[in-house]
What we know:
Blueprint: H1 9-12, H2 24-42, H3 44-64, H4 70-73, H5 75-99, H6 103-108, H7 114-143, H8 148-177, H9 183-210, H10 219-245
Helix pairs in contact: 2-7, 3-5, 3-7, 5-7, 5-8, 5-9, 7-8, 7-10, 8-9, 8-10, 9-10
Amino acid sequence: MLSEQPITATARRPPLRRRGPPGWARQAALVARKDLAIELATGEIVTTSGFFAVLVAVIASLAFYAGQDAAERVAPGVIWVSVAFASVLALSRTWQREREDGALAGLLVLPISRSALFAGKALGLCLFVAAVELIIIPVAALLFSVDLAETGAGLALLCLAATPGIAASGTLFGAMTVRTRARDLVLASVLFPLLAPTLLAAVAGTRELFGGAAVGELTDYMALMAVFDVVFIAGGIGLFDLMIEG
């Protein structure tokens, strides 16, 4: 008669499945989550960039306010100039974190795609710029007597069209200047001319919106910003490896 063998816990345990490397989208999400976790712990990027944007808006309102017409003539430029300068400040601080204590070298040796690294950094910057926009738009509306109940939906669409391009171009050229000595000066000198198409379209669209135009009349401006977004997102995915390694 055969003796019964005791069934151990090891024998009952199902075989472990090997997990493959995370996919491209997962890699990008992990990079973005890392930046977001640091920002939630410190709050330095949104705080400093938001404060700077509010300061620009307050100074501009004191210098250029000219009655009721200011909402249409001055407020669009104030909003987007504030966003542009605050974006460069946020971008500079984002890459400065990576330079500290060799964090950039550690990030580059990780087994993740360079294009996913670009996408994750751009997504994190996009969230930071969106947070600054959520700060500056209500402040500018208060200073220039803009009715957000009428223009809020259109402004949200303009921000949605403009922010990805700002984040993608900033991330791409931030990687190019990350190892230079005068990186902040070089970044601003290179980035602002490249942001001109989307900033001009955003200012013109906001001016039309504050002048009483319907959201449907802003499609040309949004299409121009969408083209800018596609060009720099595609360019960033294709060229980021060359920029960051070079």
